[in-house]
Amino acid sequence: MVTSVGFGLAAVGRPAYITLGRDEDLGEDRSVAAMRARSWAVLDAAWAAGVRYFDAARSYGRAEEFLAGWLHDRGIAPGAATIGSKWGYEYVGDWRLDAERHEVKDLHAEQLRRQLDETLELLGEHLSLYQIHSATVESGVLDDDDVLGSLSTLRAEGVAVGLSTTGPRQAETIDRAVDTGVFDTVQSTWNLLERSAGSALARAHAAGLGVIIKEGVANGRLTPRAAPAALAAAARDLGVSADALALAAVLARPWVTTVLSGAASTAQLRDNLKSAAVPWDDGLERRLAAMTEDPDLYWARRGSLAWS
């Protein structure tokens, strides 16, 4: 059975990321070979469990390379899975944990064309969806006729186009994207701590866009190692992990198409996938409503997370 949970490679495509507990999850060996093996193991487990959406980005280190190698090695034909990637950030971390900068953002059309060529060189006919990485209203990318024209051309060639959003003004970005009429999907942060984009995502869904949710466990803040007391208690009462319950909250939204697991191990993936079977009801909604944070506070806390 195809699941409503997809798999994002942000945590397994590069040695450092802003997920709590990576030292415990990954250990000391962050070599390319070790990370490739880890990514393939999680990809294998995801495929076996019915996951058919896989999400990468140019800035996720070697994520596109790892994904492309896995697709080829496993003999997965173009179209058998939905493969999404993103342009707009460039990975500059040089495969180091202590890099001064891990990625650099550039949302100009020249970057789009260059990174699209790089993505197609790796993923070729497997590429199903190409997304602006972390679009914002203030960046101006949604008013850039060169970018929108290039994306429209790509769309006409058979590749769906989308955007991911970030920051406390996600709702404005989503509404602006819908108004352009260019996009097929939107990928946004929504979780039990950060709910501010919900109404805009519902509007996007009603307008016909697919809605992909990222950071459903808030970069590790809604997992067993860091779950707020209310979430941890509710998870214990239901006999599930905190991350499964957090992702179940996402899947309970009627406007959600797919929620991404950012698992760094097969064990984490298995817990994430259990979310599809967790019952969500009005009682849980009321019980966990108080967890919601002010968006500015949430994004400030996210911005302070260390790369590890």
Q: Tell me the span between the first and last alpha carbons.
A: 35 Å
Q: What's the Cα radius of gyration?
A: 18 Å
Low-confidence stretches: none
Number of domains: 1
Could you tell me the CATH topology label.
TIM Barrel
Rough outline: globular
**What is the overall number of helices?**
12
Q: How many beta-strand segments?
A: 10
Structural class: alpha/beta
Helix amount? 40-55%
Q: Largest sheet, if any?
A: 8 strands, parallel, barrel
Provide the β-strand percentage band. 15-25%
Topology pattern, helix = H, strand = E: EHHEHEEEHEHEHEHEHHEHHH
Mean pLDDT: 97
**Strand arrangement, largest sheet?**
1-2-3-6-7-8-9-10
Pfam family, one: Aldo_ket_red
Domain NADP-dependent oxidoreductase: 39-282
Protein name: Oxidoreductase
InterPro entries: AKR2_Oxidoreductase, NAD(P)_OxRdtase_dom_sf, NADP_OxRdtase_dom
Describe this protein's structure.
This protein is an alpha/beta fold. It has a single domain (5-303), classed as NADP-dependent oxidoreductase domain (TIM Barrel). It is built from 12 helices and 10 strands. The protein has an 8-stranded parallel β-barrel with strand order 1-2-3-6-7-8-9-10, surrounded by 6 helices. Helix 3 (63-73) links the parallel strand 2 and strand 3. The longest helix has 17 residues, at 32-48. The protein starts with a strand and ends in a 5-residue tail after the last helix. The mean pLDDT is 97.
Identify the notable features of this structure and list them briefly.
single chain, alpha/beta, eight-stranded parallel barrel
